[in-house]
Amino acid sequence: MLKIGDRLPAGQLHEYVDVATEGCALGPNAVDIGSATAGKTIVVFGLPGAFTPTCSERHVPGYVAKAAELRAAGVDEVWCVSVNDAFVMGAWGRQLGVQGSVRMMGDGNADFARATGLTLDLTSRGMGLRSARYAMIVVDGVVHTLAVEAAGKFEVSDAETVLQQLRSGVLQ
Questions:
Q1: InterPro entries, from UniProt (predicted)?
Q2: Residues labelled catalytic
């Protein structure tokens, strides 16, 4: 499993882009993890699935609400990663009003989840292999903090906890 001091694995996540810009076409776009994290401080939080209760009612909304404070504490971007495709992540992001605060990254084949070891097997519940619920602070592609939730819990991967870590000087 990924640990503090490790570099994020090479690979791609996929993001649905609502408005085409230079370098980003309308629709699903591949995001190279190494290039996208280079020279940046990024909070990456993972969760089991789009449109699920805790994820939709508490996890993502917490990061949307704290986005400005996270940026003021030195965070360049906030990424939500889930084992869903870019279309689902885009629709979920629109529903939750994340525009400009959280990048919704699809890990449709669970490649990132498997490569980090941050998986959750929900096969018995009809959901297959998913991402564990976690939060990490990544600086220039290297993991500086990592908090993984126990099964069924939501206690250490919320935005307020990450913000407290940043305020305590975890990056210094």
A1: PRX5-like, Redoxin, Thioredoxin-like_sf, Thioredoxin_domain
A2: 55
